[in-house]
Amino acid sequence: APVAPCSSWSSDSADSDSSGESLYRVVLLGDPGVGKTSLVNLFAGIQERDLPEQPGEDAYERTLSVDGEETTLLVMDTWETERRNRFHNYCMQVGNAYVIVYSVTDRVSFESASELRIQLRRTRQAENIPIILVGNKTDLVRCREVSVEEGRACAVVFDCKFIETSAALQHNVTELFEGVVRQIRLRQDSKEA
Ligand code: GDP
């Protein structure tokens, strides 16, 4: 199986695994209910029926082939109800990339996304970390409260990438994680150049 729950979060930047490839930590942030777990499960290839029960195990590792090159992502799901807990603080420190998720059917979650972006900027001030803003639940057309234009405009202000997804329809989910890989590589390349 390509999926392995992982609990080795100990060192501070990108790790190398046994094959010598880089491992990057991707942290999902966003209000409860916006679809973070659903997105991570799709990434990890997990079906609803074998979901892990206990929170705290919400990290999944998978190697993606993007543009002919392999990169391993360790995707960590946080939960905002425990915004102040140690795990959340830890995630704010160790991510190599951040995915901030809101639901297009929930304006409050869109506002929370802005707060999270500000919080990230404060925590990781000097670093040029990739951030992807994600408007999820696009399948719920008639319940939409946040337009695609608003999402895009917000991403411009935040200086981050933007994509709309539907975990329910599995729409744009692969594109989201491939985009994360490309953003990480762009930063790596400019660092090495
Ligand atoms: P989390 O709290 O952010 O991890 O959100 P979950 O992944 O647990 O999702 C919360 C609820 O929204 C669940 O009932 C999901 O089935 C549902 N959900 C997640 N993504 C979508 C989506 O794209 N479309 C629809 N219609 N429902 C979704």
Q: Would you spell out the secondary-structure blueprint of this structure?
A:
Layout: E1 4-5, E2 15-16, E3 22-29, H1 36-44, E4 59-66, E5 69-77, H2 86-94, E6 97-103, H3 107-123, E7 131-136, H4 148-158, E8 161-164, H5 173-192
Parallel strand pairs: 3-5, 3-6, 6-7, 7-8
Antiparallel strand pairs: 1-4, 2-3, 4-5
The structure holds guanosine-5'-diphosphate (GDP).
Plain-language structure description:
The structure is a single chain. The termini are far apart. The chain has about 190 residues and is an alpha/beta fold. The longest helix has 20 residues, at about 175-190. Helix content is about 35%, strand content about 25%. The protein is globular and about 45 Å long. Strands 1, 2, 3, 4, 5, 6, 7 and 8 form an eight-stranded mixed beta sheet that branches. Bound molecules: guanosine-5'-diphosphate (GDP). Guanosine-5'-diphosphate (GDP) binds near residues 33, 35 and 139. Keywords: Calmodulin-binding, GTP-binding, Nucleotide-binding, Phosphoprotein.
Shape annotation:
globular
Major beta sheet summary: 8 strands, mixed
Name the helix and strand elements from N-terminus to C-terminus, one letter apiece. EEEHEEHEHEHEH
Number of helices: 5
Taken as a percent bin, the fraction of beta residues is 15-25%
Q: Mean pLDDT score, rounded?
A: 83
Oligomeric organization of the protein chains: single chain
Q: Are there runs of 5+ residues with pLDDT below 50, and where? A: 1-13, 15-20
**Separation of the first and last Cα atoms:** 36 Å
Query: How much helix is in the residues?
Result: 25-40%
Hetero compounds: guanosine-5'-diphosphate
Instruction: Decide which structural class fits the backbone.
Output: alpha/beta
Number of strands: 8
User: What is the alpha-carbon Rg in Å?
Assistant: 16 Å
